Amino acid sequence: MPKPSRSSVTLKHIANHTGLSMMTVSRVVRARPDVSQASRRKVLAAVRRLGYLPNPAARSLVTRTPTPTHERIVGTLFSREVVTSHSYFAGIIQGLTDEARQRDAHLLFGSGLGDSEHSPEIPRMIREAMTHHLILVGKLPPRFVRQLRANGFSLVLVDMRPAQREVDAIVCDDALGAYDATRHMIALGHRKIALISGPARHPFSQALIAGYRRALRESSIAWRDGLVVTAPFGPAGGYQAAERLLQSALHPTAIFTNDDGAIGALRAIRDRGLAVPGEIAVVGYDDIEYAAHIAPPLTTVAVPKEEMGRLAVRRALAQMAEGDRHVYSTTVVSPTLVVRASCGVGRPATPGIAGRRSPS
Questions:
Q1: Whole-number pLDDT of residue 360
Q2: Do residue 87 and residue 113 come from a single domain?
Q3: Of 17, 32, 63, which residue constitutes the final position of a domain?
Q4: What does the pLDDT look like over 134-146, one tens digit per residue?
Q5: Comparing 265 with 56, which gets the higher pLDDT?
Q6: In this structure, is residue 1 part of a structural domain?
Q7: Cα 1 to Cα 4, 20, 74, 359, distances in angstroms
Q8: Is the pLDDT of residue 351 over 60?
Q9: In a shared domain, residues 319 and 349
């Protein structure tokens, strides 16, 4: 196999060459003291042999003595949806900042990354190796995550399940939340429950569908393709999807979607002269800040967003403290159904009325 060029040599190449872990190689390159002399000699020999060239900022890290403050710097990278389209993530960011402040750690915030699988934007904190500990929030390209690991970064994923080992993750059991929400609507008497999910390939959409399907199956309610609509996340997507459902012959008596989509769905329902929850129920997911303040207040599934952010900071600091002894894991938090007026508690479902057109 041809030897990689000097500019393309990564810490993963060195780890494979020496048989040592990525963490050990990273510690040697960063001049950390907690590495055996035998491992240090082996890594440095491989660095010379393969021609590994850290960038100027990384070289400066190698030549200076780490300080406690420097060692408690954590980078945070956000996917595009975090900064452009989804108020859900505000709680996670609040949890990150609160926990870091409480633990005397410092956060570096990266810009939203592009969706491209091949050429995501690389924030300055990575290019210049300001920290080797990163918290990634939202759905990022798996290839980008693999590249970060291959270059010696320690990672904590938030709201994204890991596709590889040696990565910590904090996720919510969204399938369970969708199941609980659907079961609640069934318990209220609804049998024609529509689901507006996000893009079909998005993991959150798949989780919603899985929980929704399970609840229907356990209640012996037939799956109907026409009651499941995919749409972009956000109020505009929710509005357009609700319009399609309200014009269909299936006449749903309840609509389930995420909170941002529910805001759009509520507007579509009002535009057709229908009452919520009197004529059609609406249930959301996420419990964003405005869910309790819209009219009617939205029944929703609350995700412990701040807790997820706090847990992510704790895992990143544990990685720093434990080094090679750290045991990577995925922490799954549980959502909670929050019942408000929009689901029509105490009202029987009214079959068929949702398909009525508003008066001209």
A1: 28
A2: yes
A3: 63
A4: 999 988 888 888 8
A5: 265
A6: no
A7: 9, 20, 36, 74
A8: no
A9: no
Number of domains within the chain: 3
Q: In the predicted model, is pLDDT for residue 215 greater than 50?
A: yes
Residues 206 and 82 in one domain: no
Q: Which pLDDT band, with edges at 50, 70 and 90, does 183 fall under?
A: very high
Q: Is the pLDDT of residue 354 over 50?
A: no
On whether residue 223 sits in a domain, the answer given is yes
Same domain, 146 and 262: no
Evaluate whether residue 166 is within a structural domain: yes
278 part of a folded domain:
yes
Structural domain containing residue 53: 6-63
Last residue of a domain, one of 22, 47, 63: 63
Q: What mean pLDDT comes out for the span 92-115?
A: 84
Domain with 49 in it: what CATH number?
Answer: 1.10.260.40
Q: Do 206 and 349 fall into the same domain? A: yes
Amino acid found at 222: A
Q: In terms of domains, do 203 and 118 share one?
A: no
For the segment 327-344, what is each residue's pLDDT rounded down to a tens digit? Answer: 999 999 999 999 999 998
98 with 127, same domain: the answer is yes
pLDDT of residue 152: 82
Comparing 260 with 10, the larger pLDDT belongs to: 260
Q: Is the pLDDT of residue 291 over 70?
A: yes
If one compares 164 and 308, the residue with the highest pLDDT of the two is: 308
